[in-house]
Every structure is written in C-alpha cells, then in structure tokens.
User: Fold this.
Amino acid sequence: MSRPFVNSLWVVTVVAAFAAGYLWAGASRTAPPAVSTALLPADRDGEIVEASAPRVASISPEAAGTSMRERTFGALGEANQVERLRGFSRLLSEITRENWREVRDAFIQHAATSGKSTAEWKLLLERVGQVAGAMAVTEAMTLRETDREERLPALLTGWGSADADAAVAWVREHRWQSRELAEAVYNGVARADPQKAVELALTNFVGCDKSFGILLDGLAQRGEFERADALLSAVGSRTDVETRYKDFFMQALVKRKVEAVSASDPLKTLAWLEPYVGQDWVRSEPIYYAVSFAAEVDPAATMLWVDTHVTALGEGFDHRSKAGDSIGAAASAWYKKEPVQFAAWLDGHADHPYLNSALNAAVGFYLAHGQVGRVREFIDTLGNVDVRAVAENMVKQAEARNAQ
Assistant:
C-alpha cells in the first residue's frame, strides 16, 4: 500500500476523532450524556481538561452573560480557524434542551449571509439530537422534504449516542423511511456503547454487511480500537450467532487492521490471525485479504507463514478455498515480484498438497490471456521434473481452451 494512501487515511482518522471530540466534549446542564475522558482535550502536562474549562473556548469569560444567539454569531464569525474550532467546540458543549432552537436558528441566520460550513452544521445537529432527542426529530419530521432529509441523519446519530433504545425504537416504528436513518442511529450507538452496538448488529438492524464496519469506526473515534479483538472473540464463540455475522465482523476488522493499524508491517496482521485460521466460522475472504496485502510487501515470508499454517487453514467448512486461496495469493505475488525465487520454492515443494493452486495462481492469468510464451519461459527455469510436468499440463489445457 502506498505511503500517500496511508497518510491520507491517518489524516481522515484524526479529523474524525477531532469531530467526535466536538460532539462529546461537553455535557448539557440538564441531562448530560456520558463523556469518555479519552475524548476530552488535555493540557501540556497530559492532565484531562474539563469540557467547561475556559481554555478550550474562544469565548471569553466576560461573554458568559451574552445570549446563545450572540455567542453563536461570535463563534462562527471568528476568522482564525484554530480559535473558531475552539469556540465552536465550547458552543456545542453548552447546547441544552432549553436553548438548542436558539443556537440552531442563529446558525441558519448566520449561514444565510456568510455561507454554511457543512461539517459544523452536521456537528451542531448531532449535538442537538444528543440533548433534544425525540423533540428535535419530531420537529424535523414536519419540515419540507429537502430540509428533513438534510437534518434527520445527524439528529438521529446524536440521539442514538445519548439514548440508544429510544432512537432505535423510533427508527423501527418508521421503517418506511430510508435505510440511511437506521445507519445514522447505529452510528451514534456504536460511538457511545460498542457492546450494545454488537447486539444491535446481530439483529440485522442496518444490514450485517455494514454494521461491523460502523462499529469499528466508532471504536476508532473513541480511541478504543483495541477492544475490537475481545468483541470479535466473544461473537465468534457464541453458538447463537449465525456464521455470516461472525464472518462480516472478521472481514471488517481484518480490512481495518491491514489498511490502518499494520500498514507499515502487514505481517503483523498475519500473526494476529493465527488463533483464528482453524476456526470453523472463519471463511477464506478475510484471510485471503490479509495474505494478499502481506505478499505485496514480502511474498517469501508470506508464503512461509501460509505454508506453516496450511494444516489449520485446511480445516473448516470451506477448507479448500481457505488454504488454496491463501497459497494462491502468496504465489501470485511472488511470481510477479521474484520469479526465480518462486521457481526455487516450487522445485522444493513438488509434493505440496496445494501445488496446483500455487501454479495456477501464478501463471493462470497469463495463460488465460494467451501469453503462453511467457509461461513457457518460466517453466524452463523449473528444475524439478514433476513440477514441470504439472506446469506443462496446465499449458496444454490452456492451449486447448484457446483453440476452441
């Protein structure tokens, strides 16, 4: 994976975490949602700073007596971007069930003359959903369609983070609405209560193909990504959970570990996978994904890992694809990157149970596209007569197919 992509992914993660900090940085005066200390800013000595502390805001103590409308205009009118972020964060933390309309209306009024920041508007709506919940959502339902569709997802995300049961019940009552609304609620639940989000995902609330990705992104925003391992193990060991749910969770977690956590050393993901490779509920796709990524960096080491675990990979209900696909992924990358070394490995593994998988993955693409000459050149580098015979047979079969 290229360094620019990894850097971009890191930036996106930081921005998302900062945005989550906006929403959760402070509690309302009347019914404050729980706020993780991991999301609160820290001073130079690393000490947690309370969200109400003046140092996180651009609004001066002298302005404390001003109206929320004036404070909204003050925060949005700040030219210095750093100060604007601080001021807007403080403003969000001071929104309550009593004053949310005043802040919302002031934001809309300011946007009419100065333009609207989509990111700030979304954060404001999420905070409103957090403190006003059903009240704000019910009001939004009376708006014209374009305004309703713009506001409901963010409001529901905030509501889901503060009162998951109520927000989920509302969405289930309004199933005629789009799936986007269920995803919005689930997003909020995943941020605030990962365990509840797991149980909700297992009910297929928003579709098991998306639930666990949202959950893992929520853990990342909370700075608690390491909890994902324990959640996966708990789900994997449950007999009341369908295999497809376990598989979707595994796929989502492997994808994020490969692309973010271990992008600089993909072999670490393979080491992490070791306890899972022989589990019946672990299918081929997540292992193939991790092996393919690692093989791009170090195909020889990846093939060694796969070969070491080939027995465990050969267990489970789809064992043929799990072991064969893993061998194939490593072989394909090795052939492209270091064909001489790959040929030497083949020569030493003529009796390998997945020899055909390795050879077919390496040269099958070229045979399918009529590049027989290239494959024959590779066959000439093979020293083991048995391996050569297998490869020659593949060439003959390909030529017969191409002749039809």
